[in-house]
Amino acid sequence: MPIPKVEKIWMNGKLINWDDAKIHVLSHVIHYGSSWFEGIRCYATKKGSAIFRLDAHLRRLYDSAKIYRAEIPYTVDELGNAIKGTIKANKLKACYIRPVVYRGYNEIGVNPLGCPVEVAIAVWEWGAYLGADALEKGIDVCISSWRRPAPDTFPTMAKAGGNYLNSQLIKMEALANGYAEGIALDANGNVSEGSGENIFVIRDNVVYTTPFSSAILPGVTRDSVIKLVKDLGLTIVEMAIPREMLYIADEIFFTGTAAEITPIKSIDKIAIGKGTAGPITKKLQSAFFDIVNLGNDKYKWLTFIEE
User: What is the pTM of this model?
Assistant: First the structure.
């Protein structure tokens, strides 16, 4: 899906024209994948435009950079205000937000420490990530032949640009074989996550999800859904999930900023439950969209653009 152009992008402290948001071809990030980013949504709630869990997303951004020994040259408050200012400058009521931190131009070579750490923030309108009908009808997915990295290879708790080469392979393989998405296994052969989503599995009214040790990204929407599950009075279990458990689940869904809460209707052409969004998935969707669409925010997860 092409990125819809807007007027302004924030780069290194200034709002500049969209077409002027450029970096040098010899920037470290281009050659070595040295970037850290977030995907955040701003929703047009009934109570005004609001960013979903801005604080949690920014904390993860700073954590990701720290893992790779990069120091972001702005405070959390400065970046939060810059995000709100970029949305206002582009007159958007709802949008996807992409802050990205990257190693810029100075030296070439694997050692990144001589290259400046730079920051950009872009916003644009974006609809359903996995298709217009995905939230209601669910999607068909497959188990990928590509695994997530072992724990002593890439730090999967960091949302780093270079890590997403693995995600690209998972996604392209799934699409080439006629599926909307792929599910990766971890180094031990247990379930990890989708190419860009965490996964939840429901059986006999117990909700299971994979732990950080299964090479997953600590998802902000994942964390939100865990709280919503507990509020429904259901049991949530974080554990290593064997592949075959997916096939006999009552319900399965993906979570993510882009995917929100997307039901999975089949895996490897095996129907999950009744092959449609299940009752618990629907309850969780209803609770989630009550917050982001209506602004009924009992968790204080929304940062309103206009206070």
Answer: 0.96
